[in-house]
């Protein structure tokens, strides 16, 4: 084979891939442009700034509204994090080291307690062929109470105020194609109410149940770039804005076993968790003709978790310290496919475009360390930090701290 032909073949392959970065979206746009009403911005983009909406490959990828998949993924991840934080709250109050009678009495006091928690978290998702990358920073403040009826039963409620900020990864640069620092962002403010209860079946075995509901306000900004297929005309930034509401639901049931070895306490636990997030439909504004109507986006998952926690109670002059470490393994039993449907508001035929995301990880886990401190006069405090492991595209870290006052 001639050398120039060896060079031409890979160049042809690169050109083909670059020119059809999102062929499904291009096909959808072409069909929608065929019915574009004259005199609208949408008609201008389709028939004046381009030929039948024919885009460069970079622009196909940029205008493809996969941000909606990230919105649903981030929402259910934070729903999962909320129920995990509540599980730990129940465990810290009901499931304490029992190898030392003095320590046991320090932890197991009857009556009401006031709870104050704070959490800071981050989720980083790498981009894939089907989904955009994004980074989410979250802050959660919880206030609540629990009531302990002796040593065998505890119940309580927690109110949470939560804020989430997500930034979508930037487009990749291309020929005459210079993207900005991101493809948009979103904000979510949530209020949630959670109820929990736990009871000891025996000296070493206890069960717990948790239910959490939340209502969220979303604000979305989608940033993309319009570039016709010849790449000879100036590009046009496309910015759309949208806001809507959503709901989250989480239910968790757990069974734990306590064992003591010398000065150490080991807890093993098994839990089933149900999480659901739903984002209401909404219409975008702006977009120079490319504003869309986004349909309801709902994700549901059910998983089973197995974990092991090692801790040791240490008496000190100022109280009791309980350093601890834990590791968990989680398996998804059932998980919805990530699907989002949308259409151009300016398209009179309401042609629908369906975006399908990556399959979720079948199994993953997390590990962390922390310490609980119990002081005189009914005060206690804790701090924990953990990281996720075993996910193909996602890195997750969290730090949680709180105070508790018994009355």
Q: Mind explaining what this structure looks like?
A:
19% of the residues lie in helices and 53% in strands. The protein is an alpha+beta fold and 407 residues long. The strands form two sheets. A twelve-stranded antiparallel beta barrel has the order 1-2-3-4-5-6-7-11-13-16-17-18. A four-stranded antiparallel beta sheet has the order 8-10-14-15. Strand 17 and strand 18 form a beta hairpin. It is elongated, with a radius of gyration of 26 Å. It starts with a helix and ends with a strand.
* Alpha carbon gyration radius: 26 Å
**DSSP strand content:** over 45%
End-to-end distance: 86 Å
Structural class: alpha+beta
Strand line-up of the largest beta sheet: 1-2-3-4-5-6-7-11-13-16-17-18
Q: Give the biggest beta sheet.
A: 12 strands, antiparallel, barrel
**How many strand elements?**
18
Helical element count? Answer: 6
Envelope shape: elongated
The ordered H/E elements are HHHHHHEEEEEEEEEEEEEEEEEE
Q: What is the share of helical residues?
A: 10-25%
**Mean pLDDT, as a whole number?**
88
Q: Give the low-confidence spans.
A: 1-20, 97-108
Describe, in short, the structure shown.
This protein is of the alpha+beta class and 407 residues long. It has helices at 3-18, 23-33, 41-47, 57-63, 67-94, 101-107, and strands at residues 111-125, 134-149, 153-168, 184-200, 205-226, 236-261, 264-279, 282-283, 285-286, 292-294, 297-312, 314-315, 319-335, 339-344, 353-356, 363-375, 379-389, 394-406.
């Amino acid at each position: 084979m001639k050398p120039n032909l060896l060079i031409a073949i890979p160049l042809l392959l690169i050109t083909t891939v670059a020119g059809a970065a999102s062929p499904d979206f291009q096909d959808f746009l072409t069909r929608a442009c065929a019915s574009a009403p004259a005199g609208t911005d949408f008609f201008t983009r389709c028939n004046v700034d381009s030929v039948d909406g024919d885009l460069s490959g970079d622009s196909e990828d940029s205008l493809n509204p996969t941000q909606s998949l990230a919105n649903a993924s981030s929402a259910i991840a934070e729903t999962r994090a909320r129920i995990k934080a509540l599980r730990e709250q129940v465990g810290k109050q009901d499931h304490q080291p029992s190898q030392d009678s003095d320590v046991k009495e320090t932890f197991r006091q009857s009556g009401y307690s006031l709870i104050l928690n704070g959490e800071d978290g981050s989720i980083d998702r790498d981009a894939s062929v089907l989904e955009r990358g994004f980074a989410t920073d979250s802050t959660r403040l919880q206030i609540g109470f629990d009531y302990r009826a002796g040593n065998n039963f505890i119940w309580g409620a927690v109110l949470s105020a939560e804020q989430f900020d997500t930034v979508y990864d930037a487009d990749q640069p291309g020929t005459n194609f210079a993207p900005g620092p991101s493809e948009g962002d979103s904000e979510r403010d949530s209020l949630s109410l959670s109820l929990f209860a736990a009871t000891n079946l025996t000296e070493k075995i206890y069960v717990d149940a948790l239910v959490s509901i939340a209502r969220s306000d979303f604000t979305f900004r989608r940033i993309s770039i319009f570039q016709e297929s010849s790449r000879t005309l100036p590009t046009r930034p496309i910015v759309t804005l949208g806001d809507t509401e959503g709901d989250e639901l989480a239910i968790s049931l757990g069974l734990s076993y306590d064992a003591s070895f010398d000065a150490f306490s080991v807890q093993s636990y098994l839990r089933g968790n149900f999480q659901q997030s739903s984002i209401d439909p909404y219409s975008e504004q702006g977009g120079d003709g490319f504003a869309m109507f986004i349909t309801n986006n709902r994700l549901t998952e059910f998983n089973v978790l197995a974990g092991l926690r090692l801790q040791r109670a240490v008496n000190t002059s100022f109280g009791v310290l309980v350093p601890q470490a834990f590791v968990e393994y989680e398996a998804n039993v059932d998980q919805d496919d990530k699907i989002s449907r949308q259409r151009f508001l300016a398209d009179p035929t309401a042609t629908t475009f369906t975006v399908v995301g990556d399959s979720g990880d079948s199994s993953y886990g997390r590990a962390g360390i922390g310490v609980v401190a119990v002081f005189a006069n009914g005060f206690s405090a804790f701090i924990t930090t953990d990281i996720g492991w075993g996910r193909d595209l996602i890195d997750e870290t969290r730090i949680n701290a709180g105070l508790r006052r018994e009355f």
